[in-house]
């Protein structure tokens, strides 16, 4: 089965350079344009189901896709963004000034350290992989879309690309409403392409 792994459209928090984590932030007008461009770009895929993080910015993105493909949406807590603990609500510049050690830790593929009051890389990776292990498999020609978040995607892609200790997670960053392609079978997950964003050139 083909899985289209999507980062949500631009939110107000993204626009402000905020570390959002589990905080809510609506899509911007640009974010909505990105969602529409994504839906058009995915028209070639036979999407039969959309799964989404419970965050409003992800649900709104999923709603555009589900409306385009006339298919149902399922919300799953395991697709939520990484919990950034005491960093949530700060801008990147504020976080670097106030919590430099936590910010250095944030960008590195080290499974065990936990952000104070937040989640470790290993915890995020475990819940995302658990989602895929329990994903109902359908015909090989079917496709489902999975809408999640930037940091969660970095960790998942890092894991699927070999989980090299100490590697910069930002290497696997995806811009808003870009997508990656996975083949998911009973044997496991194969990452086929990642970070596809050419459809966004005229959406900004």
Describe the structure.
By secondary structure, the protein is an alpha/beta fold. The protein has seven helices and six strands, in the order βααβαβαααβαββ. A six-stranded mixed beta sheet has the order 3-2-4-1-5-6. A hairpin with a 2-residue loop joins strand 5 (179-185) and strand 6 (188-196). The longest helix has 14 residues, at 56-69. It is globular. It starts with a strand and ends in an 8-residue tail after the last strand. The model has no long low-confidence stretch (mean pLDDT 93).
What would a concise description of this structure say?
This protein is of the alpha/beta class and 204 residues long. The chain has helices spanning 12-15, 29-41, 56-69, 92-98, 100-106, 121-133, 150-160; strands at 2-7, 47-52, 73-75, 143-148, 179-185, 188-196.
- Pairing-aware structural class of the strands and helices? alpha/beta
Helix fraction bin: 25-40%
Provide the gyration radius in Å. Answer: 16 Å
Shape: globular
In total, how many beta strands?
A: 6
Low-confidence stretches: none
Q: Could you describe the largest sheet, including whether it forms a barrel?
A: 6 strands, mixed
């Amino acid at each position: 089965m083909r899985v289209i792994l999507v980062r949500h459209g631009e939110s107000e928090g993204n626009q402000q350079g905020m570390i959002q984590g589990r905080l809510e932030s609506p899509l911007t007008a640009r974010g909505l344009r990105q969602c529409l461009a994504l839906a058009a770009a995915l028209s070639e895929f036979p999407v039969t189901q959309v799964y989404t993080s419970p965050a409003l910015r992800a649900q709104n993105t999923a709603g555009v896709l589900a409306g385009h493909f006339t298919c149902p949406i399922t919300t799953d807590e395991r697709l939520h963004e990484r919990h950034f603990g005491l960093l949530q609500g700060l801008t990147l510049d504020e976080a670097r000034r106030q919590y430099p050690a936590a910010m250095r830790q944030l960008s590195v593929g080290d499974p065990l350290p936990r952000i104070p009051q937040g989640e470790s890389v290993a915890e995020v990776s475990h819940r995302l992989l658990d989602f895929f292990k329990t994903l109902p498999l359908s015909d090989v020609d079917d496709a489902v879309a999975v809408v999640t978040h930037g940091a969660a995607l970095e960790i998942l892609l890092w894991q699927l690309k070999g989980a090299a200790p100490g590697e910069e997670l930002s290497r696997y960053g995806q811009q808003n409403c870009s997508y990656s392609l996975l083949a998911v079978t009973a044997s496991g997950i194969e990452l086929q392409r990642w970070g596809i964003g050419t459809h966004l050139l005229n959406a900004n």
